[in-house]
């Protein structure tokens, strides 16, 4: 009975409690109402992603792409509206069911959102070294490639052209070079997908670029971040539908021809006669012929291979948002004629970025990008050990015309002088090189807010990159046509699972945790055949008539599994601390060495006490960071022995084909590690009109993945080892200021400057230097570069030129087999010529100065950049000086003042080395890269919101330099000649940078 009473007592309390809760709930249900609202910016445009929270609760929503929202709230509630860069507003609900709120910018809180990888951060909360480049900084420059937009705009980032050819390669380096035999390219991440290619992207698609420079910033990408990271965010649509069209056409030309004796063929003929007499041969030209050359000139082959290039570029985009859907669609067509005859590049690209807010918690985005690029006679594919076609044109016989009296090509010099190569005009006009690149990239981005504090993001993407080559060359190794086919197919996919938890405690302690699990897979399939000595020289499709075939195939696959955890703690908006750990496992290394752990930590502190009491400073922050990142930069099967084929005759008769080792196995190979320390300071002043950031850093790259040579006694070739150390030290400076700021006239200036000092600290087995792989042209079999301990990467190798042997030194000259008039070089005590470092091709200082000036509807952009403290190995000048290899005649204009017994100058009259300090020149330069002026018409044809802009611009308008070649920024390298960074600044007939004049029109409606 007692138990029964207790049961009913408990049941009664339960029922009463339940009735109370139901009644309370009904009361609340009755009291609450659905509030519909719109949040707009200062211009009346809807703000997507603004936060609306019922004050004192966790009940909150975010606005859709048009700034609309719905939320359940009581009439006594207060809605708190916040969005980064705008003042937070508290709006009482009262009797309102529809609310329209216009947000106002808050100068005190306005802060750029920076993409830092697997998330974003406010600029003021950054602890790492991150450089930002927005689309606004290059929108007034008609750039055709994204890497051009980076040049000179991000401190610590060096951008240099490999050559001036259409579609030509551009080298990007972040805070110097790390590896001697590995790859120094930075990692490119496009919308979260790793491994992008800047050269294929449409600049019009770019919203912003973020460059992660120090280890605390790059450690989140682990093994891939060792050379720095470039994060590319493409545009998303918002607001009303908009159409933008940008069309420009350009005229390009060679800024200046190089002066040679082809400009005065009579002098060339006289000097050629002297050369022939000096080697005991009869003169080539008669006095009558020389007189004819003086009167009529000869053939200027620079004029024959260079032309005016006409290019066009069309960019179209369609963007906006509709309800919960936002979109950005774009297309780009680019057609560039080269300034070298029969060269060019065409590209067609399309992009579709679609994002849908499915629910308040779920957002899905799909990005698809495709491009088709086609090179016409890719200039980098021409040339051999005798230099490029530009070098051959500069060294070709100016007394032999392009065509003979029958209208046929003169294939060679009719007199057997100057360059012995095939007529360069014939090579360019009759060769047919077609390089085609097809790229398709697709990205899926799913974000789900599990709670107000906890979210999950899936980033999945795949890339297919096909590079197809079909080449018909009129000049093969045996002076017969050849045909080449090559197909290089890369496929890549990535899946990233990203978890983010963020919470603020007691309004002072802000904690964000980010966890990542990531998997990526990359495959490469390579097929090639070469058809040698075509019997029917009628093009590529007659390859089956070749006298011989060579076939090559290859397959590679690599995988990477990664885990990352990042913690960010911010105290009272003053102190920020970021700690990251990444654990990478790669298929490249053997078991036991596959996994590497790479940590980093960084802190930043805002000195509010100083700022608050200053009439000048608006921001003062100090930063410091330390971290490590790894590098797996060896071939997929770099830990295994590699075999090649060779032929050997055992009895002096028929050769037997067999295998040979071309790379030795090293199962102990493991990670190369880069440890970096960074200290920085950020200043804002004059009420936000100016900003200054200075970063000082040191990078130590240890356990280098180095290809070390194996002695011939042990089989020769190389083995991959973890040996050697490289060190980089430097400083990055970024300065920006709104010099003039009023309603009608504004002038904004930005300077980015970097200084990097590089040093090879150690190599292997106590070696102090190793020889490079860049071989001098002319058949002299000498290497132009070396790597030396205690010196920077990029040392140039050669003899020290001391002028000429004079008549008074005849006896000393005879002792070493020379006569007066010969080139004189530094020799050792045994009389042997001393070869060693004679310069360095790696700039230490680079900078860019960008100015944007607006006056009412006019705008002016001036961009100047420069590089300093480096040398160029002017092998082009060496080749026109002649006297060796297949360029046997003197064509240098200063040869008219060569040594004679009566005029004992320091210009040799006989054979000399290509690789000597005579051809080392200072490469420092300052370039006016862009000058653009435009005028914008608003509300065209009385249509509100329409704009029409007309603009004109010039690129590479002037170049200040002491370099005597076409351009000191360019360098030459063939793929088999090693890492580009250990042989920079070598000019073997580079394709010149053009001077370009552009006219364009932009329409927006």
Automatic annotation (TrEMBL):
<dbReference type="InterPro" id="IPR036942">
    <property type="entry name" value="Beta-barrel_TonB_sf"/>
</dbReference>
<feature type="domain" description="TonB-dependent receptor-like beta-barrel">
    <location>
        <begin position="386"/>
        <end position="864"/>
    </location>
</feature>
<keyword id="KW-0675">Receptor</keyword>
<dbReference type="InterPro" id="IPR039426">
    <property type="entry name" value="TonB-dep_rcpt-like"/>
</dbReference>
<keyword id="KW-0998">Cell outer membrane</keyword>
<dbReference type="Pfam" id="PF00593">
    <property type="entry name" value="TonB_dep_Rec_b-barrel"/>
</dbReference>
<keyword id="KW-0472">Membrane</keyword>
<keyword id="KW-0813">Transport</keyword>
<keyword id="KW-0798">TonB box</keyword>
<dbReference type="Pfam" id="PF13715">
    <property type="entry name" value="CarbopepD_reg_2"/>
</dbReference>
<dbReference type="InterPro" id="IPR023997">
    <property type="entry name" value="TonB-dep_OMP_SusC/RagA_CS"/>
</dbReference>
<keyword id="KW-1134">Transmembrane beta strand</keyword>
<dbReference type="Pfam" id="PF07715">
    <property type="entry name" value="Plug"/>
</dbReference>
<dbReference type="InterPro" id="IPR008969">
    <property type="entry name" value="CarboxyPept-like_regulatory"/>
</dbReference>
<dbReference type="GO" id="GO:0009279">
    <property type="term" value="C:cell outer membrane"/>
</dbReference>
<dbReference type="InterPro" id="IPR012910">
    <property type="entry name" value="Plug_dom"/>
</dbReference>
<keyword id="KW-0812">Transmembrane</keyword>
<feature type="domain" description="TonB-dependent receptor plug">
    <location>
        <begin position="124"/>
        <end position="229"/>
    </location>
</feature>
<dbReference type="InterPro" id="IPR037066">
    <property type="entry name" value="Plug_dom_sf"/>
</dbReference>
<dbReference type="InterPro" id="IPR023996">
    <property type="entry name" value="TonB-dep_OMP_SusC/RagA"/>
</dbReference>
<comment type="similarity">
    <text>Belongs to the TonB-dependent receptor family.</text>
</comment>
<protein>
    <submittedName>
        <fullName>TonB-dependent receptor</fullName>
    </submittedName>
</protein>
<dbReference type="InterPro" id="IPR000531">
    <property type="entry name" value="Beta-barrel_TonB"/>
</dbReference>
């Amino acid at each position: 009975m007692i138990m029964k009473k207790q049961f009913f007592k408990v049941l009664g309390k339960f029922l009463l409690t339940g009735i109370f809760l139901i009644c309370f709930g009904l009361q609340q249900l009755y009291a609450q109402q659905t509030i519909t609202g719109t949040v707009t910016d200062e211009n009346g445009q809807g703000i997507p992603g603004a936060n609306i929270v019922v004050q004192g609760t966790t009940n909150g929503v975010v606005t859709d792409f048009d700034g609309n929202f719905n939320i359940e709230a009581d009439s006594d509630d207060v809605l708190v509206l916040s969005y980064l860069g705008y003042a937070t507003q508290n709006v009482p609900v009262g009797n309102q069911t529809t609310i329209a709120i216009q947000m106002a910018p808050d100068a005190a809180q306005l802060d750029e959102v920076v993409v830092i990888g697997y998330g974003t951060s406010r600029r003021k909360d950054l602890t790492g070294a991150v450089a930002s480049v927005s689309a606004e900084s290059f929108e007034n420059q008609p750039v055709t490639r994204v890497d051009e937009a980076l040049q000179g705009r991000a401190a610590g980032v060096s951008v240099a052209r490999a050559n001036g050819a259409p579609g030509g390669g551009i080298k990007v380096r972040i805070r110097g070079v790390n590896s001697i035999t590995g790859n120094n390219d930075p990692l490119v991440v496009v919308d979260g997908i790793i491994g992008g290619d800047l050269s294929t992207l449409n600049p019009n698609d770019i919203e912003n670029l973020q460059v992660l420079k120090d280890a605390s910033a790059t450690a989140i990408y682990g093994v891939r971040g060792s050379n720095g990271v470039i994060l590319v965010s493409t545009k998303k649509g918002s607001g009303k539908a908009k159409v933008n069209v940008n069309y420009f056409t350009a005229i390009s030309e060679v800024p200046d021809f190089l002066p040679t004796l082809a400009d005065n063929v009579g002098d060339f003929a006289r000097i050629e006669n002297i050369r022939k007499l000096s080697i005991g041969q009869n003169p080539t030209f008669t006095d009558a012929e020389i007189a004819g050359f003086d009167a009529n000139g000869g053939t200027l082959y620079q004029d024959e291979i260079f032309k005016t290039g006409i290019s066009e570029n069309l960019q179209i985009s369609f963007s906006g948002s509709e309800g919960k859907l936002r979109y950005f669609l774009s297309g780009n067509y680019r057609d560039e004629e080269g300034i070298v005859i029969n060269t060019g590049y065409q590209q067609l690209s399309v992009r579709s970025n679609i994002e849908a807010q499915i629910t308040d918690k779920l957002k899905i985005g799909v990005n698809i990008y495709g491009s088709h690029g086609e090179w016409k006679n890719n200039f980098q594919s021409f040339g051999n050990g005798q230099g490029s076609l530009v070098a051959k044109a500069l060294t070709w016989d100016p007394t032999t015309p392009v065509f003979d009296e029958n209208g046929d090509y003169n294939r060679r010099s009719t007199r057997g002088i100057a360059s012995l190569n095939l007529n360069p005009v014939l090579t360019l006009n009759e060769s047919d090189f077609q390089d085609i690149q097809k790229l398709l990239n697709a990205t899926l981005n799913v974000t789900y807010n599990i709670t107000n504090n906890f979210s999950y993001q899936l980033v999945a993407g795949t890339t297919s990159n096909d590079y197809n080559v079909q080449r018909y060359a009129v000049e093969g190794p045996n002076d017969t046509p050849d045909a080449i086919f090559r197909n290089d197919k890369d496929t890549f996919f990535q899946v990233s699972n990203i978890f983010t938890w963020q919470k603020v405690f007691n309004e002072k302690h802000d904690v964000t945790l980010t966890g990542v699990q990531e998997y990526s897979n990359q495959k490469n399939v390579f097929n090639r055949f070469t058809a040698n000595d075509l019997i029917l020289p009628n093009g590529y499709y007659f390859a089956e008539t070749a006298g011989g075939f060579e076939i090559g195939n290859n397959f590679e696959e690599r995988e990477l599994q990664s885990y990352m955890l990042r913690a960010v703690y911010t105290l009272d908006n003053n102190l920020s601390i970021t700690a990251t750990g990444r654990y990478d496992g790669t298929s490249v290394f053997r078991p036991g060495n596959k996994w590497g752990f790479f940590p980093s930590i960084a802190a930043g502190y805002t000195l509010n006490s100083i700022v608050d009491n200053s009439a000048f400073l608006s921001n003062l922050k100090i930063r410091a960071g330390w971290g490590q990142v790894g590098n797996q930069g060896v071939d997929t099967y770099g830990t295994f022995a590699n075999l090649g084929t060779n032929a050997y005759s055992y009895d002096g008769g028929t050769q037997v084909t067999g295998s040979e080792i071309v790379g030795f196995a090293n199962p102990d190979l493991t990670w190369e590690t880069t440890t970096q320390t960074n200290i920085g300071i950020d200043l804002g002043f004059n009420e936000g009109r100016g900003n200054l950031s200075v970063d000082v850093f040191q990078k130590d790259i240890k356990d280098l993945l180095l290809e070390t040579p194996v002695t011939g006694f042990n089989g020769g070739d190389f083995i991959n080892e973890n040996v050697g150390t490289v060190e980089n030290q430097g400083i990055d400076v970024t300065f920006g200021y709104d010099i003039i700021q009023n309603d009608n006239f504004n002038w904004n200036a930005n300077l980015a400057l970097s200084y990097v000092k590089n040093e090879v600290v150690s190599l292997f087995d106590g070696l102090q230097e190793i020889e490079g792989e860049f071989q001098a042209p002319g058949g002299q079999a000498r290497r132009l570069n070396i790597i030396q301990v205690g010196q920077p990467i990029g040392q140039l190798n050669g003899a020290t030129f001391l002028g000429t042997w004079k008549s008074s030194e005849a006896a000393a000259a005879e002792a070493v087999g020379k006569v007066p008039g010969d080139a004189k070089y530094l020799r050792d005590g045994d009389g042997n010529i001393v070869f060693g470092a004679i310069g360095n091709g790696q700039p230490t200082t680079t900078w860019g100065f960008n100015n944007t000036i607006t006056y009412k509807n006019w705008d002016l952009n001036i961009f100047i950049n420069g590089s300093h403290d480096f040398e160029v190995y002017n092998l082009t000048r060496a080749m026109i000086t002649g006297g060796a290899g297949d360029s046997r005649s003197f064509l240098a204009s200063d040869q008219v003042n060569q040594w004679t017994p009566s005029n004992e100058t320091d210009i040799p009259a006989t054979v000399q080395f290509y690789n000597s300090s005579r051809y080392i020149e200072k490469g420092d330069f300052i370039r006016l890269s862009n000058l653009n002026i435009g005028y914008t018409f608003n509300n065209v044809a009385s249509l509100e919101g329409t704009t029409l802009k007309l603009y004109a611009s010039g690129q590479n308008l002037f170049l200040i330099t002491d370099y005597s070649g076409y351009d000191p920024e360019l360098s030459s390298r063939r793929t088999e000649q090693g890492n580009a960074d250990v042989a920079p600044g070598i000019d073997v007939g580079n394709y010149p940078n053009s001077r370009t004049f552009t006219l364009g029109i932009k329409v927006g409606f």
